[in-house]
């Protein structure tokens, strides 16, 4: 019976992840060296998508809050920027897409792009379900902190492609908790409140 329940929960989490990713906007970036600009296009707008343009020291040059329908196509003038390496990042509900951009000798080129899938946190009836596609197959560290930043739970998952965890908060004290998922791609957090 436990195996059937575990399989059902995993299938539901996987279905939710695939559905959420299908609803995510697709991003396209075109470098225009003649105009020294970048053209950024989205096929649709997600209410949770944010854009950041960063320099080589991760200083934010441009940031847009949540995108709206006017943000489907934007042109960024880079003519005033110094030569160097920059990053254009779109952060949405389920993924982060980062483009590495080089400005050199009055030319702009997109060197690479990297897409990182974020963990999915689902809260239901005192349980927190975590589903994470671990692209790098590196160690993943799952931690739970209370409102005073005390570590309550720590668990290392080694070399698994799909990390699935269920954390039981049914008997937890009332208050706020922070769950972190740390991987080679970054640290992701989810704040929950137990009432």
Describe this structure in words.
The chain folds into 2 domains: 26-117, Immunoglobulin-like, CATH 2.60.40; 119-194, Sandwich (Immunoglobulin-like), CATH 2.60.40. It is elongated, with a radius of gyration of 20 Å. The relative contact order is 0.14. By secondary structure, the chain is mainly beta. The protein is built from 1 helix and 15 strands. The chain has a 5-stranded antiparallel sheet, with no helix packed on it. A 4-stranded antiparallel sheet has the order 12-11-14-15, with no helix packed on it. Strands 1-2-5 form a 3-stranded antiparallel sheet, with no helix packed on it. The longest helix has 21 residues, at 2-22. Residues 1-22 form the signal peptide.
Structural class: mainly beta
Helical content band: 10-25%
Helix and strand sequence: HEEEEEEEEEEEEEEE
**Unreliable parts:** 4-14, 16-23
Content of β-strand: over 45%
Beginning-to-end CA distance, first to last residue: 30 Å
The figure for the number of domains is 2
**What can be said about the biggest beta sheet?**
5 strands, antiparallel
């Amino acid at each position: 019976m436990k195996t059937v329940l575990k399989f059902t929960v995993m299938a539901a989490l996987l279905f939710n992840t695939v559905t959420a990713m299908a609803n995510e906007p697709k991003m396209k970036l075109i470098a225009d060296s003649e105009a020294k600009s970048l053209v950024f296009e989205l096929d649709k707008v997600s209410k949770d998508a944010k854009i950041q343009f960063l320099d080589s020291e991760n200083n934010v040059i441009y940031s847009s809050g949540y995108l709206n329908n006017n943000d489907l196509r934007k042109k960024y003038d880079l003519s005033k920027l110094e030569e160097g390496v920059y990053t254009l990042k779109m952060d949405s509900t389920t993924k982060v897409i980062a483009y590495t951009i080089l400005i050199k000798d009055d030319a702009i080129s997109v060197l690479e792009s990297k897409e990182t899938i974020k963990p999915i946190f689902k809260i239901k009836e005192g349980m927190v379900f975590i589903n994470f596609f671990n692209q790098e197959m590196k160690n993943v560290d799952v931690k739970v902190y209370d409102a005073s930043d005390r570590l309550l739970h720590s668990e290392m998952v080694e070399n698994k492609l799909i990390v699935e965890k269920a954390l039981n908060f049914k008997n937890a004290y009332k208050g706020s908790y922070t769950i972190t998922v740390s991987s080679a791609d970054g640290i992701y957090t989810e704040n929950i409140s137990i009432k």
